[in-house]
Design a protein that fits this description.
Length: 332
């Protein structure tokens, strides 16, 4: 049986605002096995990034976090002190943030930003940390690493800044790497290079990866298992083959239908808007946009139905009595 490096059960994260309490994550449960690549996909605002920031304990002061289980590599993250979490952040868990221009400190050189975690977490002297920083920049494909170490973030291209972020995230050889939209705002060629680099670093350091994205194409090239989120909940979870070829939830089917298969092919959008998480619906959050919605869907939040082989879907269409009445529903 595979060993879990991360286990989450019933995670809730909310934010107090002037308008009320935003229920960003509403009770999600999942795990990550050692050495695997897990993809988390969904529309903007569905709770992907907030879930990962909750794990890292990097939430704003107005946030509230609750969970039945929040374990990383045998440690209960809910019971670890602030100092204990700082020893984990950037050391045993690395994170590549969505926008390297705002995540990298504009006041410090590349050298300072790579050497700092090395000196803090690995107790390296400045000279040793600098030598390792040079090797890291070379490993992530940055030319003239000596010159780049002395530069500031604004002096680098978008692709180079993202490579620096990967070097920082991987410098302490973390057991888990969280990559939040690592290819956003990069052109297609650079995107491919960044994904190839991440795969190489994962294999070299035997790191588990959580890849957050809205791009199912990126997920298919990088991950072995996928979680589909919507409205602060998990809608579906399964292996790549399950999600793409044995789709179990209408929302997943809508995401797949919105991917162009051929040039000049008309896109099929998901009509409507995501739910208001200040006042989330009582039932399935996708009910108002779902072509298969029943009265039950708007009233009661669906349970997870086991579709076999670790594939599960939170959709009433899989309830035995609904299937007996309606027959098999083609989602794709």
């Amino acid at each position: 049986m595979a060993e879990h490096i991360l286990e989450i059960k019933n995670l809730h994260t909310s934010f107090r605002t002037d308008a009320g309490v935003v229920q960003a994550v509403r009770g999600i449960s999942f795990y990550v096995e050692k050495g695997e690549s897990l993809g988390i996909v969904g529309e903007s605002g569905c709770g992907k990034s907030v879930s990962m920031l909750s794990i890292m304990r990097l939430l704003e002061d107005n946030a509230s976090l609750e969970a039945d289980v929040l374990n990383f590599d045998g440690q209960d993250l809910l019971k670890i002190s602030g100092k204990g979490m700082r020893d984990i952040q950037g050391n045993r868990i690395g994170m590549i943030f969505q926008d390297p221009m705002t995540s990298l400190n504009p006041l410090f050189t590349v050298e300072e930003q790579i050497c700092s975690p090395l000196m803090r977490h690995q107790n390296l002297k400045r000279k040793e940390a600098r030598e390792k920083a040079l090797r890291l920049l070379d490993a992530v494909g940055i030319p003239s690493p000596e010159r780049r170490l002395k530069q500031y973030p604004h002096e680098l291209s978008g692709g180079m800044r993202q490579r620096v972020m990967i070097a920082i995230a991987m410098c302490c050889r973390p057991g888990l790497l969280i990559a939040d939209e690592p290819t956003t705002a990069l052109d297609v060629t650079i995107q491919a290079q960044i994904l190839e680099l991440m795969a190489h670093m994962k294999n070299e350091f035997q790191t588990s990866v959580i890849l957050i994205t809205h791009d199912l194409g990126v997920i298919s090239s990088m991950c072995t298992r996928v979680i589909v989120m919507y409205g602060g909940l998990i809608m579906e979870e399964g292996a790549i083959e399950d999600i793409f070829y044995r789709t179990g939830h209408p929302y997943t089917a809508g995401l797949l239908a919105s991917i162009p298969q051929k040039s000049r092919e008309k896109l099929v959008p998901i009509y409507g808007t995501p739910p208001d998480l200040l006042n989330p619906p009582a039932g399935c959050p996708f009910a108002a946009r779902c072509p298969h919605a029943m009265k039950l869907c708007a009233k009661c939040q669906p349970q997870f139905f086991d579709l076999g082989g670790g594939h599960r879907s939170a959709c009433w269409l899989h309830h035995p009595s609904v299937k007996a009445q309606k027959g098999e529903v083609k989602l794709g």
